[in-house]
From TrEMBL:
<dbReference type="GO" id="GO:0005524">
    <property type="term" value="F:ATP binding"/>
</dbReference>
<dbReference type="InterPro" id="IPR021456">
    <property type="entry name" value="DUF3107"/>
</dbReference>
<dbReference type="Pfam" id="PF11305">
    <property type="entry name" value="DUF3107"/>
</dbReference>
<keyword id="KW-0067">ATP-binding</keyword>
<protein>
    <submittedName>
        <fullName>ATP-binding protein</fullName>
    </submittedName>
</protein>
<keyword id="KW-0547">Nucleotide-binding</keyword>
Amino acid sequence: MDIRIGIANSPRELNFESTQSAAEVEKIVSAALDSDAKYIKLSDDKGKVYIVPVASFSYLEVGSESSRRVGFVA
């Protein structure tokens, strides 16, 4: 699934593919926002770990879990 994270005061965003489900990502982010957590950790499908400070979130976009189709549609 595609994850995009907007960072406050930054013109760029984090964009990566993850093997985590939308429910898992939502649970991690909502738990961090409800508690006094300083950051969240998300991992991509290649094993990289992204650590983002909670205070700098602008938005978090979680894409669909369906895979992209390749080829022509008749």
